[in-house]
Amino acid sequence: MTLPLEVNTGSLIGGEWVSGSSSIDVINPATGGVLTKVSNATIADCLAAVSAADRAFESWSKTAPRVRGEILRRAYELMIAEHEALSQLITLEMGKVITDARAEVTYAAEFFRWFSEEAVRIDGDYRRAPSGNNWLLVSRQPVGVALLATPWNFPAAMATRKIGPALAAGCSVVLKPAHDTPLTALAIADILVRAGVPDGVVNVVVTDQPAPAVEAMLNSGRVRKLSFTGSTRVGSCFSSKLRRESLTAAWNSAVMHRSSCVRMPTSTSQSKERCLPRCATEVQHAPRRIDSSYTKRCSRSSLPSSSTACPSSCSVTV
C-alpha cells in the first residue's frame, strides 16, 4: 500500500538510517493488511544509538538555547506543513478516525512550538544563604542522554511531548516507539533531521523486544534520564534499575507513591491516596522506595477490571 508520505523505515543512529537483518510488519488495524516493514533493531543497534547520543551530547548541550529553539520551531512548521499526510499516517497504522488523527497532529506539533519558546527561558536562582554570610547561585544544566519510550495510542503526541523538552534543555535522545505504530515516530524523526538537528542528537530504534532493549540501554551506564509511557507490566521491569523515578500507573492515571510522600485525598474511586503534586501534570515527585502496601491495594478490587476498562498504562519520568 502507498503511504501518504515517504517514511524512512530503518533505525536512525548517529544521523544515518540503518537497515537491520530482520524486519517488523506494520499492520493496518482496519484491514489486517501489511502497510510496510520497518527495521527490527537488535540490542547492538540500541546500544549503538545510545553511544551516538552520548557522543552528540557534549556539543548539543553547549549549543545556544536560541539555536536549539529555532530548530524546534522549524520542526513545528514542518509538521504543520505536512499536517494532512501525518494525520493519514496515524489513521493507517493506529486506527484513529481521521478527525482524531488531525487533532493529534495539531496537539503534537504544539509541543515543538511551546518548547522552542521555553528553550530560551531556562531559569536559575540567586539568593542569600540562610546564614547571611554567602550568596547561593543555582544554574540548571542538561543531564545527558534521555531514553524515551512511547506507546501505540498517541504515536505523534507522545513522541513530541518527550522530545521537545529534552532537546530544549540540551539533552540528546534515543526514542523507542511502540513497534505496533512506528511510522509516525520515524516521520517525526525525519522532520527533526530536516529541521537541522545535528547527527546523533535524535536517534530512533524500533524493536519487537522492548523490555530487553530498554533494560540493555539503561544498563549501558550512558542513559541519564528515562521517560516511559506504556504498560504497567513493562514499566515495572525498569523501576528497580532506576535511582530516581516517578510513576503514573494503571487506570485513570492513578499514581503509585512512596511511603514518605505527603498523602492527600482524591476524588477518583480508583486511587484513594495520591502524592501531593508540584504542578498540574500527571508526573509526581516521589522518594526512593515504593510503598508495597499501596501497590497491593491498587492490584485488588479498587481498580476496574481489564474487561471493563482501558488497558493499564504506566508513565515514568526520571
Question: Your description of this structure?
Answer:
The protein has a domain at 11-120 and 139-230: Aldehyde Dehydrogenase, Chain A, domain 1 (3-Layer(aba) Sandwich). Helices cover 38% and strands 18% of the residues. The protein has nine helices and 14 strands. The strands form five sheets. The chain has a six-stranded mixed sheet, sandwiched between helices. It has a two-stranded antiparallel sheet with strand order 1-2. It has a two-stranded antiparallel sheet with strand order 3-4. The chain starts with 10 loop residues before the first strand and ends with a strand.
Low-confidence stretches: 246-291, 298-318
- Could you tell me the CATH topology label of the domain at 11-120 and 139-230: Aldehyde Dehydrogenase, Chain A, domain 1
If you compute it from the alpha carbons, what radius of gyration comes out, rounded to the nearest whole angstrom?
A: 20 Å
Tell me the β content: 15-25%
Total DSSP helices: 9
Give the SSE order as H and E letters: EEEEHHHHEEEHEHEHEHEEEHE
